[in-house]
User: Fold Fimbrial assembly protein from Dictyoglomus turgidum.
Amino acid sequence: YISWKEELITYLNSGLFDMEEKSVVIVGEDDRFLSVGVNLLENLSLTFNTSLIQETSLPFLGSILYREKVVPDLNFIKFKIGIDKELITRSLLSLLLSLSLLFPLNFYLDLKIKDLNRRIQSLNQEIAKYNDQILNLRKQVDDGNLLLQTLEGWLDERSSIALPFLFLSDLKNFIPRSCWLTNFQIGLDKKIIIEGYSLDTEGIADFMLALSQYERIKNIKLEGSILEIIGDKPIQKFRMVGFLK
Assistant:
């Protein structure tokens, strides 16, 4: 027991080394530990300012310790004011530094925005100019297409008028000597009908071959051939049908 008491005193001295007034409060939660508390009070009172509290309500432990002056009075107000002043000073310095950096940044951004606006206006002017040029080119293309359509229509009309004359002009070169024509028609759909006579079938075949090789005619065919007797002579009557290109 003596060794235990010395160890306890040594432990308390080391824990209370920095305190000028060394006080120990013994608090018991149950009446069964009262004898232990009295024993501790007798052994520790020679070294420490020792008191024994027989109140067993632990929720009131804080007020009990404060009443016994075991818990020292600490003044945090002065220390807090010092901290607040230092914090305010640092905050003000940070704010001023931020503002000093913010103003040049705002000035740079304002210049950048104005420069971008000028570029946008310049691009809009360029786009408007190119749009006018595109509209002019489109109008020229439309006028050219209209003129081309007019010329094509005029050429079609001239072709429809001139083609029969061209065909009639070339037809004399295709008719064999043994053939002669009695009827020639050209319809609105460019369909041609050729009727005539031939002294023999070879003349009809030669005439068909010549017409099939002519570049201004397509789909030429022999629609019919009849043998007739004229003046005691057999003669082939034929009918050909085709289309002008």
User: Anything to note?
Assistant: DSSP finds five helices and six strands in the chain. Residues 70-81 have pLDDT under 50 and may be disordered. The longest strand covers residues 217-230. The two ends are 139 Å apart (CA to CA).
